[in-house]
Design goal:
41% helix, 12% strand, 2 domains, 179 residues, 4-stranded antiparallel β-sheet
Length: 179
C-alpha cells in the first residue's frame, strides 16, 4: 500500500460520522443512508485502496460470481436440532464441562511477580503448577503471602493481581495506615 493511501485511511479513524458521510459522497459519488461510523470507515477505506491499487481482475470477478451462483442460500437460520430433540443429533452429541487448566488471573508461567513488603523485596516465579519463592515451591500465592507476612492474606491481593489497587508498604488495604 502506498504511503499516501495509508495516511488517508488513517485519517478516517479520526473523522466523525458526518465527516465520513461527506467523504463517502466524495469517494463514491453518491450519498449513503448509513450513519454507522465503523461501517463507513471500512467501506471508504476499501474504496480508497481500490482506486489506488486497482480492483479485482475480470477472472477473479467471474470466479466469485460462479461461486455465488452455485451456493445454496438459506432463507432461515437452521433449527437447533439438539434442543428440539433430533435423535440422530443427540446420539452423536456429547456434552460436558471442561474445567479451566489455570486461573485466568495468573500471568503466564515464567513471569516474575515482584512486591515490596516491609522494606523487603519479594520476588515469586510463576510455574506451570505452583510458584517458586526463595528456592522453595508453593502451591498458592496465599501460602507465600503468609510465609512473608506471618498472617493470612489473599495471595492475589497481596501481589496486586486483583482489579483493586496494589497494597503498599505492607498495609492490608490501600489507603489504610498502620498505627
Amino acid at each position: 500500500m502506498e504511503a499516501t493511501t495509508y495516511q488517508e485511511i488513517q485519517k478516517l479513524s479520526r473523522m466523525t460520522a458526518g465527516e465520513l458521510r461527506e467523504r463517502h459522497l466524495e469517494v463514491f459519488g453518491e450519498e449513503t443512508r448509513s450513519h454507522h461510523k465503523e461501517f463507513l470507515r471500512k467501506r471508504i477505506a476499501w474504496r480508497l485502496q481500490t482506486l489506488a491499487e486497482g480492483d479485482l481482475s475480470e477472472r477473479a470477478r467471474r470466479k466469485a460470481e460462479e461461486l455465488a451462483n452455485d451456493a445454496d442460500l438459506r432463507m432461515r437460520a437452521p433449527r437447533d436440532a439438539v434442543r428440539l430433540g433430533s435423535a440422530e443429533v443427540k446420539a452423536r452429541t456429547t456434552t460436558g464441562h471442561i474445567p479451566p487448566s489455570r486461573d485466568p488471573r495468573l500471568p503466564l508461567p515464567g513471569t516474575l511477580l515482584a512486591r515490596e513488603f516491609q522494606s523487603r523485596d519479594i520476588v515469586v516465579k510463576v510455574l506451570d503448577n505452583g510458584f517458586e519463592f526463595d528456592g522453595r515451591r508453593y502451591k498458592s500465592l496465599s501460602a507465600i503471602a503468609k510465609e512473608v507476612s506471618g498472617s493470612k492474606w489473599n495471595g492475589f491481593l497481596f501481589f496486586g493481581l486483583t482489579s483493586g489497587e496494589k497494597p503498599r508498604n505492607g498495609n492490608r488495604k490501600p489507603g489504610r495506615r498502620n498505627e
